[in-house]
């Protein structure tokens, strides 16, 4: 009776030590997400801001965000998505130049149905004049984006936001329409009327995902057609939080929204805890055999 009691106490102690070390490591990781988020317009102090100043990727808090351009330039009615060029505009941020334009400074050809102004201002921005441009932001872990900052706006900056909430990772956007996305694991976060000012563009929500699509106001996902067609803006930064700071049981942090991988330090500590339990079990077996 006494031997079994002390064996149980020792096993519980090993588990408590292992879990305690893991919790300490996770708390340390969460604490790294206390950077200044003013660039993205969020008021949450435990978030990160990913800034795209002459670059298409940025890493904050151990999580990398990578931008890629998309626009509906395929098919006879120009409804299918195709990859587009990201334009780097210094302190004003990222724009999109779709495939209607074959030259950087201005377009050539002038084939019927093409937007031959795509390479010139203001259509070198994320816009919905002729085509609807978007930027896909792919993160190495799930995040809850709540804001972006526009570094440049012409006329208006109404925008649409979608997030991937399906299982696994999304299929390529190429060859799908914007409407197709809503049937293939993507969710509409909102169509937001933002006005003509630069700075913070908020879209508060509770979704966590590794894939976010932000573009000019999009009538193909329910955007108001009377407000579209004159939106031109460049995106300089994103702001949001990771699942590390989310309350236990937060929807999306365990399922959906694309795959994430555990932190290497957490895996190492978990392995150490399991090794400790294994050694204890071996010693107990050897003692019983003696």
Provide structural commentary.
With 290 residues, the chain is of the alpha+beta class. The protein has two domains: 32-245, no CATH class; 260-290. The protein is 21% helix and 33% strand. The protein has helices at 2-31, 178-181, 264-289, and strands at residues 48-51, 57-60, 63-74, 80-88, 94-97, 126-127, 133-155, 159-164, 186-192, 199-202, 209-216, 231-242. Strands 1, 2, 3, 4, 5, 6, 7, 8, 9, 10, 11 and 12 form a twelve-stranded antiparallel β-sheet that branches. Strand 3 (63-74) and strand 4 form a beta hairpin. Helix 1 (2-31) packs antiparallel against helix 3. The longest helix has 30 residues, at 2-31. The two termini are 18 Å apart.
């Amino acid at each position: 009776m006494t031997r079994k009691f002390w064996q149980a106490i020792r096993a519980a102690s090993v588990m408590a030590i292992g879990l305690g070390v893991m919790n300490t490591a996770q708390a340390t990781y969460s604490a790294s997400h206390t950077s200044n988020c003013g660039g993205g317009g969020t008021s949450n102090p435990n978030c990160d801001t990913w800034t795209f100043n002459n670059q298409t990727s940025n890493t904050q808090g151990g999580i990398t965000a990578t931008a890629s351009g998309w626009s509906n330039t395929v098919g006879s009615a120009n409804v299918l998505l195709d990859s587009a060029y990201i334009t780097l505009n210094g302190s004003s941020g990222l724009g999109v130049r779709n495939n209607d334009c074959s030259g950087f400074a201005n377009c050539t050809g002038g084939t019927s149905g093409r937007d031959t102004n795509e390479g010139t201002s203001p259509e070198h921005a994320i816009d919905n004049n002729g085509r609807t441009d978007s930027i896909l932001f792919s993160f190495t872990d799930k995040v809850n984006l709540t804001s972006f900052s526009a570094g440049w706006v012409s006329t208006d900056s109404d925008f649409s936001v979608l997030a991937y909430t399906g299982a696994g990772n999304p299929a390529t956007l190429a060859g799908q329409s914007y409407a197709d996305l809503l049937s293939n694991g993507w969710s509409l976060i909102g169509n937001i009327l933002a006005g003509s000012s630069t700075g913070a563009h908020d879209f508060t929500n509770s979704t966590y995902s590794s894939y976010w699509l932000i573009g000019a106001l999009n009538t193909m996902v329910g955007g108001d057609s009377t407000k579209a067609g004159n939106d031109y803006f460049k995106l300089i930064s994103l702001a949001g939080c990771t699942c590390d700071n989310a309350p236990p049981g937060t929807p999306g942090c365990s399922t959906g929204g694309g795959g994430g991988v555990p932190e290497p330090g957490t895996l190492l500590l978990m392995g150490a805890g399991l090794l400790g339990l294994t050694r204890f079990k071996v010693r107990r077996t050897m003692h019983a055999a003696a």
